[in-house]
Design a protein that fits this description.
Strands 1-2 form a two-stranded antiparallel ribbon. The chain has no helices and 2 strands. It is extended and about 40 Å long. The mean pLDDT is about 85. With about 50 residues, the chain is mainly beta. The protein starts with 17 loop residues before the first strand and ends in a 16-residue tail after the last strand. A hairpin with a 7-residue loop joins strand 1 and strand 2.
């Protein structure tokens, strides 16, 4: 399962919301996505590292 980050409007940001997103690599391919929480992303570096 691929993982990606995207900015979405607040009205679409609830976990479980299904979206169609477009790749930004110039191929214009539309993909299905589901909004989830961010356990895999730690921008504040709060999780301890090994």
């Amino acid at each position: 399962m691929p993982v990606a980050l995207a900015r979405v409007a607040v009205r679409h940001a609830d976990p479980g919301t299904e979206l169609l997103v477009q790749r930004s690599d110039g191929r214009r391919r539309t993909l299905a996505a589901t909004v989830t929480t961010l356990p895999f992303y730690d921008p504040g570096k709060q999780r301890p590292r090994a």
